[in-house]
Amino acid sequence: MEVTIHPTVRDMAAAAAHRAAGELARCISENGRATFMAATGASQFAFLDALTHEGTVDWARTTMYHLDEYIGLAASHPASFRRYLKERLIDVVHPSTVHLIDGSALDPASECARLTRLVEQDGIDVAFVGIGENAHLGFNDPPADFESRAVFEVVELAHTCREQQVHEGWFETVDEVPRKAITITIPGILRSKCIICTVPEARKAVAVKHALTGPVTPTYPASALQNHPRTYVFLDADSASLLDKRLAHR
Ligand code: GLP
After folding, report:
1. Which of ligand 1's atoms lies nearest the C-alpha of 67?
2. What is the total count of domains within the chain?
3. Which ligand 1 atom minimizes the distance to the CA of 44?
Protein backbone atom coordinates (compact mmCIF):
# COMPACT_ATOMS: atom_id res chain seq x y z
CA MET A 1 0.00 0.00 0.00
CA GLU A 2 1.33 3.42 -0.92
CA VAL A 3 -0.15 6.21 1.20
CA THR A 4 0.19 9.88 0.35
CA ILE A 5 -1.09 12.83 2.37
CA HIS A 6 -2.04 16.07 0.61
CA PRO A 7 -2.68 19.50 2.12
CA THR A 8 -6.22 19.94 0.77
CA VAL A 9 -9.06 17.87 -0.73
CA ARG A 10 -8.33 19.47 -4.06
CA ASP A 11 -4.66 18.43 -3.99
CA MET A 12 -5.65 14.93 -2.89
CA ALA A 13 -8.17 14.63 -5.72
CA ALA A 14 -5.73 15.90 -8.34
CA ALA A 15 -3.06 13.39 -7.31
CA ALA A 16 -5.54 10.49 -7.21
CA ALA A 17 -7.03 11.45 -10.57
CA HIS A 18 -3.58 11.68 -12.10
CA ARG A 19 -2.71 8.19 -10.86
CA ALA A 20 -6.10 6.78 -11.97
CA ALA A 21 -5.84 8.32 -15.44
CA GLY A 22 -2.29 7.02 -15.80
CA GLU A 23 -3.37 3.48 -14.90
CA LEU A 24 -6.32 3.58 -17.33
CA ALA A 25 -4.19 5.03 -20.15
CA ARG A 26 -1.51 2.40 -19.60
CA CYS A 27 -4.07 -0.45 -19.75
CA ILE A 28 -5.55 1.00 -22.95
CA SER A 29 -2.14 1.33 -24.52
CA GLU A 30 -1.13 -2.23 -23.56
CA ASN A 31 -4.45 -4.06 -24.07
CA GLY A 32 -6.60 -1.79 -26.21
CA ARG A 33 -9.15 -1.38 -23.39
CA ALA A 34 -9.42 -0.68 -19.67
CA THR A 35 -12.07 -1.83 -17.22
CA PHE A 36 -12.71 0.18 -14.08
CA MET A 37 -15.05 0.12 -11.12
CA ALA A 38 -16.31 3.43 -9.75
CA ALA A 39 -17.21 4.30 -6.17
CA THR A 40 -19.75 6.87 -5.09
CA GLY A 41 -20.31 8.85 -1.89
CA ALA A 42 -18.91 12.13 -0.62
CA SER A 43 -15.32 10.83 -0.75
CA GLN A 44 -15.49 10.68 -4.55
CA PHE A 45 -16.83 14.17 -5.38
CA ALA A 46 -13.52 15.96 -5.88
CA PHE A 47 -11.76 12.89 -7.26
CA LEU A 48 -14.34 12.25 -10.01
CA ASP A 49 -14.41 15.92 -10.90
CA ALA A 50 -10.62 15.93 -11.30
CA LEU A 51 -10.67 12.63 -13.21
CA THR A 52 -13.12 13.94 -15.78
CA HIS A 53 -10.74 16.84 -16.42
CA GLU A 54 -7.75 14.56 -17.07
CA GLY A 55 -7.12 14.62 -20.80
CA THR A 56 -5.16 11.39 -21.09
CA VAL A 57 -7.89 8.72 -21.04
CA ASP A 58 -9.62 7.50 -24.22
CA TRP A 59 -12.92 6.81 -22.49
CA ALA A 60 -14.32 5.22 -25.67
CA ARG A 61 -12.04 2.31 -24.82
CA THR A 62 -13.26 1.83 -21.28
CA THR A 63 -15.80 -0.39 -19.56
CA MET A 64 -17.34 0.82 -16.32
CA TYR A 65 -18.77 -1.02 -13.33
CA HIS A 66 -19.64 0.34 -9.90
CA LEU A 67 -19.22 -0.92 -6.38
CA ASP A 68 -22.65 -0.87 -4.88
CA GLU A 69 -26.29 0.23 -5.03
CA TYR A 70 -29.26 0.38 -2.70
CA ILE A 71 -31.98 -2.21 -3.21
CA GLY A 72 -35.40 -0.76 -3.93
CA LEU A 73 -34.36 2.84 -4.59
CA ALA A 74 -35.44 4.24 -7.95
CA ALA A 75 -32.61 5.24 -10.30
CA SER A 76 -34.09 8.75 -10.31
CA HIS A 77 -33.82 9.19 -6.49
CA PRO A 78 -31.22 11.82 -5.51
CA ALA A 79 -29.36 9.20 -3.40
CA SER A 80 -29.25 6.57 -6.17
CA PHE A 81 -25.68 5.65 -7.08
CA ARG A 82 -26.78 5.11 -10.68
CA ARG A 83 -27.93 8.72 -10.76
CA TYR A 84 -24.76 9.90 -8.96
CA LEU A 85 -22.55 8.22 -11.56
CA LYS A 86 -24.67 9.25 -14.53
CA GLU A 87 -24.43 12.91 -13.53
CA ARG A 88 -20.78 12.99 -12.44
CA LEU A 89 -19.11 10.50 -14.74
CA ILE A 90 -21.13 8.66 -17.39
CA ASP A 91 -22.75 11.67 -19.06
CA VAL A 92 -19.46 13.58 -18.82
CA VAL A 93 -16.90 11.14 -20.25
CA HIS A 94 -19.14 8.52 -21.91
CA PRO A 95 -17.39 5.19 -21.24
CA SER A 96 -18.18 2.92 -24.21
CA THR A 97 -19.67 0.19 -22.01
CA VAL A 98 -21.43 0.76 -18.69
CA HIS A 99 -22.67 -2.05 -16.43
CA LEU A 100 -24.84 -0.48 -13.74
CA ILE A 101 -26.16 -2.40 -10.75
CA ASP A 102 -29.93 -2.56 -11.06
CA GLY A 103 -31.01 -2.02 -7.47
CA SER A 104 -34.62 -2.19 -8.66
CA ALA A 105 -34.22 -5.71 -10.07
CA LEU A 106 -37.05 -8.00 -8.96
CA ASP A 107 -34.55 -10.71 -8.04
CA PRO A 108 -31.41 -9.15 -6.48
CA ALA A 109 -29.69 -12.55 -6.28
CA SER A 110 -29.99 -12.93 -10.06
CA GLU A 111 -28.66 -9.40 -10.49
CA CYS A 112 -25.63 -10.36 -8.38
CA ALA A 113 -25.12 -13.45 -10.53
CA ARG A 114 -25.39 -11.39 -13.74
CA LEU A 115 -22.77 -8.89 -12.53
CA THR A 116 -20.51 -11.66 -11.26
CA ARG A 117 -20.50 -13.33 -14.70
CA LEU A 118 -19.59 -10.02 -16.35
CA VAL A 119 -16.80 -9.17 -13.91
CA GLU A 120 -15.35 -12.67 -14.10
CA GLN A 121 -15.27 -12.33 -17.89
CA ASP A 122 -13.84 -8.77 -18.02
CA GLY A 123 -11.63 -8.58 -14.94
CA ILE A 124 -11.17 -5.19 -13.27
CA ASP A 125 -8.05 -3.20 -14.08
CA VAL A 126 -8.65 -0.33 -11.68
CA ALA A 127 -11.11 0.04 -8.78
CA PHE A 128 -11.85 3.39 -7.18
CA VAL A 129 -12.88 3.10 -3.54
CA GLY A 130 -13.60 5.35 -0.58
CA ILE A 131 -13.69 4.45 3.12
CA GLY A 132 -16.86 5.05 5.14
CA GLU A 133 -17.02 6.49 8.66
CA ASN A 134 -17.38 2.93 10.00
CA ALA A 135 -14.46 1.87 7.75
CA HIS A 136 -16.71 0.15 5.23
CA LEU A 137 -15.50 -0.52 1.70
CA GLY A 138 -18.29 -0.49 -0.84
CA PHE A 139 -21.27 -1.48 1.29
CA ASN A 140 -19.31 -4.07 3.26
CA ASP A 141 -20.11 -2.82 6.75
CA PRO A 142 -18.41 -4.26 9.85
CA PRO A 143 -18.09 -7.10 10.54
CA ALA A 144 -17.31 -7.64 6.86
CA ASP A 145 -17.05 -11.03 5.22
CA PHE A 146 -13.42 -11.42 4.17
CA GLU A 147 -13.95 -15.04 3.07
CA SER A 148 -16.92 -14.59 0.74
CA ARG A 149 -16.65 -16.60 -2.47
CA ALA A 150 -19.15 -14.32 -4.20
CA VAL A 151 -18.14 -11.29 -6.25
CA PHE A 152 -21.42 -9.43 -5.68
CA GLU A 153 -23.88 -10.10 -2.91
CA VAL A 154 -26.91 -8.75 -1.10
CA VAL A 155 -26.04 -7.19 2.28
CA GLU A 156 -27.90 -5.61 5.21
CA LEU A 157 -26.69 -2.08 5.86
CA ALA A 158 -25.40 -1.26 9.34
CA HIS A 159 -27.17 1.46 11.31
CA THR A 160 -23.93 3.50 11.36
CA CYS A 161 -23.82 3.39 7.58
CA ARG A 162 -27.47 4.41 7.24
CA GLU A 163 -26.92 7.28 9.70
CA GLN A 164 -23.96 8.53 7.66
CA GLN A 165 -26.19 8.77 4.59
CA VAL A 166 -28.63 11.00 6.54
CA HIS A 167 -25.85 13.22 7.93
CA GLU A 168 -24.56 13.71 4.39
CA GLY A 169 -28.02 14.86 3.31
CA TRP A 170 -28.93 12.04 0.91
CA PHE A 171 -32.02 11.16 3.00
CA GLU A 172 -34.16 13.06 5.53
CA THR A 173 -34.38 10.25 8.11
CA VAL A 174 -32.69 6.91 8.82
CA ASP A 175 -35.99 5.14 8.13
CA GLU A 176 -35.87 6.38 4.54
CA VAL A 177 -32.47 4.78 3.94
CA PRO A 178 -32.91 1.34 2.38
CA ARG A 179 -31.98 -1.55 4.67
CA LYS A 180 -30.40 -3.65 1.93
CA ALA A 181 -27.97 -3.16 -0.91
CA ILE A 182 -26.06 -5.03 -3.58
CA THR A 183 -22.32 -4.66 -3.13
CA ILE A 184 -19.16 -6.07 -4.56
CA THR A 185 -17.63 -8.18 -1.78
CA ILE A 186 -14.27 -7.54 -0.13
CA PRO A 187 -12.64 -10.46 -2.04
CA GLY A 188 -14.31 -9.02 -5.16
CA ILE A 189 -12.63 -5.64 -4.62
CA LEU A 190 -9.27 -7.31 -3.96
CA ARG A 191 -9.44 -9.02 -7.40
CA SER A 192 -8.82 -5.63 -9.03
CA LYS A 193 -5.32 -5.26 -10.41
CA CYS A 194 -4.99 -1.74 -9.01
CA ILE A 195 -6.99 0.09 -6.32
CA ILE A 196 -7.19 3.89 -5.98
CA CYS A 197 -8.55 4.79 -2.54
CA THR A 198 -9.45 8.44 -1.87
CA VAL A 199 -10.51 9.51 1.61
CA PRO A 200 -10.83 13.17 2.58
CA GLU A 201 -12.32 14.80 5.72
CA ALA A 202 -11.73 14.70 9.48
CA ARG A 203 -14.78 12.51 10.13
CA LYS A 204 -12.87 9.66 8.43
CA ALA A 205 -9.70 10.04 10.55
CA VAL A 206 -10.49 7.24 13.03
CA ALA A 207 -11.50 4.82 10.26
CA VAL A 208 -8.38 5.70 8.28
CA LYS A 209 -6.11 5.12 11.27
CA HIS A 210 -7.60 1.67 11.98
CA ALA A 211 -7.74 0.66 8.31
CA LEU A 212 -4.18 1.63 7.48
CA THR A 213 -2.25 1.03 10.68
CA GLY A 214 -4.27 -1.52 12.67
CA PRO A 215 -4.56 -5.27 12.22
CA VAL A 216 -6.40 -6.65 9.17
CA THR A 217 -9.79 -7.37 10.67
CA PRO A 218 -13.46 -7.57 9.57
CA THR A 219 -14.17 -4.99 12.31
CA TYR A 220 -12.50 -2.41 10.05
CA PRO A 221 -13.37 -3.68 6.55
CA ALA A 222 -11.00 -1.28 4.74
CA SER A 223 -8.06 -2.90 6.56
CA ALA A 224 -8.39 -5.61 3.87
CA LEU A 225 -6.63 -3.19 1.52
CA GLN A 226 -3.40 -3.94 3.41
CA ASN A 227 -3.46 -7.37 1.73
CA HIS A 228 -3.64 -5.98 -1.81
CA PRO A 229 -0.38 -5.64 -3.77
CA ARG A 230 -1.18 -2.44 -5.69
CA THR A 231 -3.28 -0.08 -3.61
CA TYR A 232 -2.69 3.67 -3.64
CA VAL A 233 -4.31 5.61 -0.80
CA PHE A 234 -4.82 9.37 -1.12
CA LEU A 235 -5.62 11.34 2.04
CA ASP A 236 -6.01 14.99 2.88
CA ALA A 237 -4.51 16.54 6.02
CA ASP A 238 -7.77 16.11 7.95
CA SER A 239 -8.38 12.42 7.25
CA ALA A 240 -4.68 11.75 7.96
CA SER A 241 -4.65 13.74 11.21
CA LEU A 242 -4.39 10.67 13.49
CA LEU A 243 -1.66 8.93 11.49
CA ASP A 244 2.00 8.81 12.31
CA LYS A 245 3.30 10.99 9.49
CA ARG A 246 6.25 8.63 8.98
CA LEU A 247 3.76 6.21 7.41
CA ALA A 248 3.36 8.40 4.38
CA HIS A 249 5.51 10.58 2.27
CA ARG A 250 4.87 13.97 0.61
C1 GLP B 1 -20.43 4.62 0.33
C2 GLP B 1 -20.61 4.06 -1.09
C3 GLP B 1 -19.31 3.50 -1.64
C4 GLP B 1 -18.16 4.32 -1.14
C5 GLP B 1 -18.06 4.22 0.36
C6 GLP B 1 -17.47 5.41 1.02
O7 GLP B 1 -21.51 4.49 1.15
N8 GLP B 1 -21.61 3.07 -1.04
O9 GLP B 1 -19.38 3.45 -3.06
O10 GLP B 1 -16.94 3.88 -1.67
O11 GLP B 1 -19.33 3.96 0.93
O12 GLP B 1 -18.44 6.38 0.93
P13 GLP B 1 -18.43 7.82 1.52
O14 GLP B 1 -17.49 8.56 0.70
O15 GLP B 1 -19.83 8.34 1.39
O16 GLP B 1 -18.02 7.67 2.94
Report:
1. 9
2. 1
3. 14
